[in-house]
Amino acid sequence: MATKELIGNMLIAQSGGPTAVINQSLIGAVLEAKKQKQIKRIYGARHGIKGLLEEDLIDLSRETVKTLEAVAQTPSSALGSVRKKPTAEDCARIFTVLQKYNVRYFFYIGGNDSAETTHIINEEARKAKYEFRCFHICKTIDNDLRQNDHTPGFGSGAKFVASAFMGDNLDNRALPGVKINVVMGRHAGFLTAASALARVYPDDGPHLIYLPERPFAMSRFLQDVKRVHKKYGRCVVAVSEGIADRSGKPIASLFIKETDSHGNVQLSGSGALGDLLAGEIREKLGIARVRADTLGYLQRSFPGVVSANDAKEARAVGQLAVKYAATAYAHGSVAITRKTGKRYAVDYKRVPLKSVAKDTRHMPARFINAAGNDVTQAFVDYARPIVGPLPPVGRFKGLPVKRA
Amino acid sequence: MATKELIGNMLIAQSGGPTAVINQSLIGAVLEAKKQKQIKRIYGARHGIKGLLEEDLIDLSRETVKTLEAVAQTPSSALGSVRKKPTAEDCARIFTVLQKYNVRYFFYIGGNDSAETTHIINEEARKAKYEFRCFHICKTIDNDLRQNDHTPGFGSGAKFVASAFMGDNLDNRALPGVKINVVMGRHAGFLTAASALARVYPDDGPHLIYLPERPFAMSRFLQDVKRVHKKYGRCVVAVSEGIADRSGKPIASLFIKETDSHGNVQLSGSGALGDLLAGEIREKLGIARVRADTLGYLQRSFPGVVSANDAKEARAVGQLAVKYAATAYAHGSVAITRKTGKRYAVDYKRVPLKSVAKDTRHMPARFINAAGNDVTQAFVDYARPIVGPLPPVGRFKGLPVKRA
Q: A157-303+363-387 belongs to which CATH class?
């Protein structure tokens, strides 16, 4: 299905939650497009499909390389993002707009919903016999896209989470008590699991990790905290915002009244789940110093805390999407695979849009311990190279002074 | 009051909330002590005065320079910290312990309460005619110690806050709405004010900054948010955890039931204030997308986000405290002053313990705008060199594509 000399304009857009490296993918794509002679103007749609529907487009061909490289280093979606999932009518309208601007190359950076949107738009083009190339470019800090060993954005989000727990464990060691940190991830626990990378010494936290992949029981949670607190005189806990009970009902929803317009409990941008868990510990275990923080939006957009591998790979998937579309495939998504061997190395491959769309993936069973309150060494080995080196942690030998 | 050849042991301890550079002061002091021949053993008390009262001491003389330097780079109090304010009996007991271990040099790293403790212990020694040298070593992310232009720990805490707002402003620009971030600082607004350093472009957030130094009125707050949201279609707000109404009652306490054992409302380690403000905006202004994060403990212990000046100055005050005690003064605190002139440079001076103890300082009026919802350029000029360079932010020129 090699494509040859399809001449026309290109349009690129960003969707869903921002990441620290989503602009690397954008700029990787734009710089590659500048090399491809058959691609004429390079348009960016502001706020994803919203900009497409409203014809709110900017001309990326007119940006200097200096600006492009500065944007690549900047977290969060530079074109603006959107949470809207298009209807069938929206997709038909989008296709009309693309035709109107003679867009022959379309790229959508986002998660599984964006892959689905790209697929539907491609179907519209196919039905209309409009010559068209389109690629989905993976991004999500949740790391929940199928076909991928890991997704661009996860490594940097995970680096923030691991760094946060590293510092917070030291804080908790200085002023002991129970500390709960609520981590993003409604259905997939990868980001919460990354807290395990913070451990340097055997008594380091997080001492307990709760993921949405395992049912959460309050009684069991309280037992776990009690046991750790007895052993270490302190306890650091990582909790995914999406933890749910045996029936799949989010723990947050059992106590939080607020829901969004779709009736979903709002998990991010609220400290309610952490406060709820802290309150239970205070009340049921009688531990005085209990604190909860919700790491919140910093996880996906903190400047300067970026995994070097993540930035490199995010750039590569953007670049390759354009290269594939211009020279090899009519449509698809660029997936990251991991090479076998001792040293960490990745490969990229084109996969069908449908194979990334709709369903997501979760933490595999081999990454979660039997008790469901921690991760395994296999997860740590998997995640460490994606995240890259973390700041070193020094500790005194601490030889006791003989009592006088 | 130059001291001469007082031979004996040294003891050092850390108190209060940890910072990212409190170990720089500790290691600065220890390394200087190793140079001073009259100082024999170097003891560290675990968890501040708690370790002193319980004779829980470690021998820092036996730590390698490699370990000491690794600890210096590590955030949070390596000796452990404590929130306990000693009674008069505690101070008498502490003095007995110091005598027992032939401690002639005592150093206490902490805030105004620690300066007060050091002063009381010094008084005990004076009454007992015990030859004794003691220094308080400043630290606090709150930046609220008298006599100091700024305090060690503030620069790094402020760098974290500014970075967080920088990323969060970009996030809010990508997915517009109202975003509130609650920042540490019960009585002094310096750390919240540091959010202003995040601004690069004229429309950048934080668009509103609320400090504990100015009375907070909900109606005025809602008007401010409404105005900014109308202008930019979005609004990023920095709020100090300590904002209080006209009568001085913390806003948090008006709605939060939970108090600590002293009856104080717990401000940190809870998302309640942010959730409260977000709820008011949703309800009264009818804005759909409103989120609140509480930056929490990450502000004082995040590894890798350290101001270079802050680290250097924290090291210097520790080092100088020992040098002063060994060669020049019997007691005092080391304060940071700023040299006049265009280029940022600091000086250090010995000040009396009592001049730092008890009272704290607040944001001066010239750092706060007339409306009480922002800081002035004078504050930005003051804070920028303390914090140091922040990550660069790139932005597209964004030339609109002509409608087809």
A: alpha beta
Of the partner residues B18, B63, B292, the one whose CB lies closest to the CB of residue A171: B18
Q: So which residues of B are the catalytic ones?
A: 142
Residue A265 has phi, psi (to 5 degrees) of -70, 135
State the span(s) of chain B assigned CATH 3.40.50.450. Answer: 8-152+305-355
The 10s digit of each residue's pLDDT in B39-62 is 999 999 999 999 999 999 999 999
Question: How many whole angstroms separate alpha carbon B82 and alpha carbon B87?
Answer: 14
Q: Tally the residues of chain A.
A: 404
Distance between CA B350 and CA B153 in Å, rounded? 19
Across the interface, whether the CB atoms of A63 and B290 are under 8 A apart is answered no
Interchain pair B271, A268: CB under 8 A: no
CATH 1.10.3380.30 fits B8-152+305-355, yes or no: no
Q: DSSP readout, B123-147?
A: HHHHHTT---EEEEEE--TT---TT
From A310's Cα to the closest Cα of chain B, the distance in A is 17
Residue A69 has phi, psi (to 5 degrees) of -70, -35
User: pTM higher than 0.90, yes or no?
Assistant: yes
Residues of chain A with CATH 3.40.50.460: 157-303+363-387
CB–CB contact B397 A293 (8 Å): no
- Measured CA to CA, the distance from residue A121 to residue A119 in angstroms comes to 6
Instruction: State pLDDT tens for residues A315-344.
Output: 999 999 999 999 999 999 999 999 999 999
Average pLDDT over chain A, rounded to whole? Answer: 94
- Residue in B73, B75, B168 nearest the CB of A301: B168
Mean pLDDT on B10-15: 98
User: How many other C-beta atoms are found inside a 10 Å radius of the C-beta of residue A203?
Assistant: 13
Q: Which of A367, A365, A352 is nearest to A147 (CA)?
A: A352
In Å, how far is B18's CA from the nearest CA of chain A?
A: 6
